[in-house]
Amino acid sequence: MESPSVLCVRLSLKQRYFLLLCFAVGAVVVYRFTRSRSEVRRSWHVVGLRANSSQFTLETKPFRILGGSIHYFRVPRAYWLDRLQKMKACGLNTVTTYVPWNLHEPERGVFNFEDQLDLEAYLRLAASLGLWVILRPGPYICAEWDLGGLPSWLLRDKNMRLRTTYPGFTAAVNSFFNQLIKKVVPHQYSRGGPVIAFQVENEYGSYARDKDYMHFIKEALLSRGITELLLTSDNKEGLKLGGVKGALQTINFQKLNPDDIKHLDAIQPQKPKMVMEYWSGWFDLWGNLHHVYAAEDMVPVVTEILKQDMSINLYMFHGGTNFGFMNGAFAVGLPAPKPMVTSYDYDAPLSEAGDYTTKYHLLRNLFSSYHTQPLPEPPSLLEKSAHQPVVIHRHLSLWDTLHFTDKPLKSERPVNMENLPVNNKNGQSYGYTLYETIIASGGALNSRDSIRDRALVFVDRHFVGVLDYKIQELALPDGKGKRTLSLLVENCGRVNYGKTLDEQRKGLVGDIELNQQVLRDFIIHSLDMKPGFVNRLVNSAHWMSVHQRPSFPGFFQAKLYLSSSPKDTFIKLPGWNKGVVFINGKNLGRYWSIGPQQTLYVPGPWLHRGDNQVIVFEEQEADGKIQFTVTPDYGMTVDVE
Ligand code: GLA
């Protein structure tokens, strides 16, 4: 019998070509009929987002990105769908989100992509609504987020150089990207998913410490299977140094300045122009006013951007909340950093609680003219409840909770929080740290600028005063014998933008002095107030009834009873001074009477029918009750400059 190969040799050249053609056509037919629509995208003839001329193309057709940012980590998971549907109904076609490394890798090598951090579920949800996604995986994200999203354990290395090719940093990025990128690769456009582009780093042009760094990040994405369009994003000044070969440069601004666009065009001619961050509002700092950006000022700018054929991403479309201790701080041009408030309402088109604003309605009207089909109806509003005030029924002194913390550290010298031997040697990331030592006299306590960021000072647990960046000296009262000096130091949030990222260690970062003698021999308690700690508190035997005088700082407990299914609400705390609110173990964030923010958002899905446990940690002054309102109060307003 002749073998097939011999048969083949006997065929003429024409016959061979014919056979080959039949085979190829057959293969395509089989492929088309056996693959799902999304799988077909993997074939060679379907192309994703491209930037080959002055207009984007998607699937080879002209495409304009009408984008908006919603950060999945700032919105309760139960509301992801609601917010994305509202985005779709506003006429946007693309959702953009950062990825917060600090939440996904809370301890080195320990990863979390579950529940509130289930990025894949978020991508699937966007896809199910027909929204495209631009992913901004950082690793640095800025975003008014603690340390711009970098995990604080990186700062355990005293030589750390964040956002550079310092080996200690690149190794950590590689290890995180090994986990993150394999999760997002299957959600790329070419694999049938919604992700049409990836941003390389974030505004690196404003940092630009290391000329090799952007290349490293780009390769870190490419080598792990990222195949979609790459972008960078910078403000006008940053454009010069922020780009990397092979990535499209985009620009960030709030007011449209024709020179900025010319500048972008000059450095990158014949490419699509995109405003990656069109700031729809602005963030707020404690002690300042609440920023607003009038819809009547904003909408004409968006109109003009679209008229000029540019693509746009509204930063933010919906800001959400800096729950927990996740807020960043701002320091550029200030004598000392100022922390960001808990709300990230941002004066965005959708409010913190997902309500429509004037901006939303005007934008919907504008975007509708860029669609051939009518836009879907906006989903109906979620109801809110203004509950009756709840009464504090017991309180617990902070001093009676110290045995619930990790084992305290005895140390001759002060140790900054990141270098404490807690959390499996990852240090303490957020919250408060208590430093105690024995003193034998009163006198002048000088912080030598070692306090990050703010300390309540006590002698024998009696409050003496506050030390911070401004107040660096306190008079300690005289007294007999040995007494305990306590400094409860709060990390108010790490700076997220600017050149001081490497200096964001918190707690006591150096020596402090009493009468010009440095203090030694500390006992250090880490009070990061994680859910385990808050849950342990509830079983303490030291809770006291309301009839006894409360001691500060302390925990104050109340019950919110709900007889029907829970709705959103806002907490307000007139008569309280400064602290943190926990509901059913969830950290809602910080409040501070100095404002501007006066209410804390309580998402309905975090409550349940029956008794809900409310615990307030208050530093200095409490009222006997907690109040609720349906109307947020972000404080006195000022127009964004
Ligand atoms: C920059 C950053 C964002 C955010 C905005 C201000 O553009 O890229 O992450 O910090 O500023 O809200």
Automatic annotation (TrEMBL):
<dbReference type="InterPro" id="IPR026283">
    <property type="entry name" value="B-gal_1-like"/>
</dbReference>
<feature type="domain" description="Beta-galactosidase galactose-binding">
    <location>
        <begin position="553"/>
        <end position="612"/>
    </location>
</feature>
<dbReference type="InterPro" id="IPR008979">
    <property type="entry name" value="Galactose-bd-like_sf"/>
</dbReference>
<dbReference type="InterPro" id="IPR048913">
    <property type="entry name" value="BetaGal_gal-bd"/>
</dbReference>
<dbReference type="Pfam" id="PF21467">
    <property type="entry name" value="BetaGal_gal-bd"/>
</dbReference>
<dbReference type="InterPro" id="IPR031330">
    <property type="entry name" value="Gly_Hdrlase_35_cat"/>
</dbReference>
<comment type="similarity">
    <text>Belongs to the glycosyl hydrolase 35 family.</text>
</comment>
<keyword id="KW-0378">Hydrolase</keyword>
<feature type="active site" description="Proton donor">
    <location>
        <position position="203"/>
    </location>
</feature>
<keyword id="KW-0326">Glycosidase</keyword>
<dbReference type="Pfam" id="PF01301">
    <property type="entry name" value="Glyco_hydro_35"/>
</dbReference>
<protein>
    <recommendedName>
        <fullName>Beta-galactosidase</fullName>
        <ecNumber>3.2.1.23</ecNumber>
    </recommendedName>
</protein>
<dbReference type="GO" id="GO:0005975">
    <property type="term" value="P:carbohydrate metabolic process"/>
</dbReference>
<keyword id="KW-1133">Transmembrane helix</keyword>
<feature type="domain" description="Beta-galactosidase 1-like first all-beta">
    <location>
        <begin position="427"/>
        <end position="528"/>
    </location>
</feature>
<feature type="transmembrane region" description="Helical">
    <location>
        <begin position="17"/>
        <end position="34"/>
    </location>
</feature>
<dbReference type="InterPro" id="IPR019801">
    <property type="entry name" value="Glyco_hydro_35_CS"/>
</dbReference>
<dbReference type="InterPro" id="IPR001944">
    <property type="entry name" value="Glycoside_Hdrlase_35"/>
</dbReference>
<dbReference type="InterPro" id="IPR017853">
    <property type="entry name" value="GH"/>
</dbReference>
<dbReference type="GO" id="GO:0004565">
    <property type="term" value="F:beta-galactosidase activity"/>
</dbReference>
<keyword id="KW-0472">Membrane</keyword>
<feature type="active site" description="Nucleophile">
    <location>
        <position position="277"/>
    </location>
</feature>
<keyword id="KW-0812">Transmembrane</keyword>
<feature type="domain" description="Glycoside hydrolase 35 catalytic">
    <location>
        <begin position="55"/>
        <end position="368"/>
    </location>
</feature>
<dbReference type="InterPro" id="IPR048912">
    <property type="entry name" value="BetaGal1-like_ABD1"/>
</dbReference>
<dbReference type="Pfam" id="PF21317">
    <property type="entry name" value="BetaGal_ABD_1"/>
</dbReference>
